[in-house]
From TrEMBL:
Biological classification of the source: Eukaryota, Viridiplantae, Streptophyta, Embryophyta, Tracheophyta
Keywords: ATP-binding, Membrane, Nucleotide-binding, Transmembrane, Transmembrane helix, Transport
Family named by the database record: Belongs to the plant ureide permease (TC 2.A.7.19) family.
Annotated protein name in UniProt: Ureide permease
Record's subcellular location: Membrane
Membrane-spanning segments: 6-30, 42-61, 81-98, 105-126, 138-158, 232-254, 274-299, 320-339, 345-365, 377-396
Membrane association type: Multi-pass membrane protein
Length: 402
């Protein structure tokens, strides 16, 4: 198997992982905004997410003669560690599934901020003690503090942006009511259209309402698969905080699987390699996702329309994007674990600064925070500043596993 043996190599793994893990949520959000059912998207995503783990296992896990290799570990008596890895996969799968619904209610940027911050505050603290304190506490915990502040700022950004959107819609209250009844928005479009490439619809140049306007918000609501108008923002925030707790547990579970800090393995049985653990981790992630999403096809939540396996198999609209999201998430998680095995899982949680990437995509692709108030912009800038500080501090705390 291949081992990342240097601090520099671990940091490279973290940075690439940060890019991948910050991009796949944007791809999933893009499909939801185009109107594709989240159950269909997540089933596609799940397939390539597992395939990424298989590719990593049969390449990096078998790349050299350094024992133990991936295939040799499949027959070892290492089930206690396997169960820890699979438990991590379960909570990650549930967390990822939850965020797919939260993005529609709260927005890509704020959901990623809150879930990532909760992950760091809880998960990084657990990893610090599980890793026998190999990270520098005097540097690590100020970074955790930055993420905690970012949770508060992220909630404030959501509150401010929601107030901004309500104000925009109130200005066009009569038109909003007409739109909800399916009446044409031609009058409004005459004053708020722009010729541009419609990224969300996947079409070529088209007349499109300017991002941030009331017309844009109304048209988005009509097009997207998860309807959010008239629903309490507490629904989205509750789902977001639940997802954050799930995310905070998967990395410590994976840490226990690869390092056996609780001494559950029999004497002489080698620890799971990061590649073997990631394989089992992804298997459980896959199984849970398949069970939940097939259930949601026939018993949907949040007033989504019912679907079926036949409808899913015939839905090729956006399937390639969903496959891409699965690869990005799978390789992103694998790189995070490879870096964590070398430099400590607490430091590897620096990839939870992924909202830096997600916010970029949210603003560029989806027009989030366009035409918002100065207060919203100030809060957004402060939130991003805290994340920049946090990722730098957590990476500086990296130690080296002996």
């Amino acid at each position: 198997m291949y081992l990342v043996e240097s601090k520099g190599g671990a940091i490279v793994c973290m940075l690439v992982s940060l890019l991948f893990l910050g991009t796949w949520p944007a791809v999933m959000t893009l499909l939801e905004r185009r109107g594709r059912l989240p159950q269909h998207t997540y089933l596609d995503y799940t397939l390539t997410n597992l395939l990424a783990a298989v590719i990593i296992a049969f390449t990096f896990g078998q790349i050299s003669n350094t024992p133990p290799n991936f295939l040799s570990q499949l027959s070892q008596d290492n089930w206690p560690s396997v169960l820890f890895a699979m438990a991590g996969g379960v909570v990650l799968s549930v967390g990822n599934l939850s965020t797919q619904y939260a993005w529609a209610f709260v927005g890509l940027s704020v959901v990623e901020v809150i879930t990532s911050s909760i992950t760091v505050v809880i998960g990084t603290t657990l990893n610090y003690f599980l890793d026998d304190k190999i990270n520098k506490a005097g540097i690590l915990f100020p970074g955790v503090g930055c993420f905690l502040i970012a949770v508060c700022l992220g909630s404030a950004v959501h509150s401010s942006n929601t107030a901004d959107n309500k104000a925009k819609l109130n200005e066009f209250s009569s038109d909003y009511k007409d739109a909800a009844q399916g009446i044409s928005l031609s009058t409004l479009k005459a004053t708020s259209e722009v010729n541009s490439k419609d990224l969300e619809n996947g079409s070529g140049p088209a007349n499109k309402a300017k991002a941030g306007t009331a017309v844009f918000l109304i048209e988005l609501e009509k097009r997207r698969s998860i309807k959010v108008f008239g629903k309490s923002t507490l629904i989205g925030l509750s789902i977001t905080f639940f997802a954050g707790v799930c995310f905070s547990l998967f990395s410590p579970a994976f840490n226990l699987a690869t390092n056996d800090q609780w001494h559950t393995l029999k004497k002489g049985v080698p620890h799971l390699t990061v590649y073997t653990a990631f394989f089992y981790f992804s298997i459980s992630c896959f199984v849970i996702a398949i069970i939940l999403n097939i259930t949601f096809l026939y018993h949907p939540v949040l007033n989504l329309p019912k679907s079926s396996l036949r409808a899913y198999l015939g839905d090729w609209n956006g399937r390639g994007w969903a496959f891409l999201a699965g690869f990005l998430c799978g390789f992103g998680n694998g790189l995070q674990f490879m870096g964590g095995q070398a430099a400590g899982y607490a430091a590897a949680d620096a990839v939870q600064a992924l909202p830096l990437v997600s916010t970029f995509w949210g603003v560029v692709l989806f027009g989030e925070y366009r035409k918002s108030s100065r207060r919203t912009y100030m809060l957004l800038g402060s939130m991003l500043f805290m994340f920049i500080a946090a990722v730098a501090v957590l990476m500086a705390s990296s130690g080296h596993r002996k």
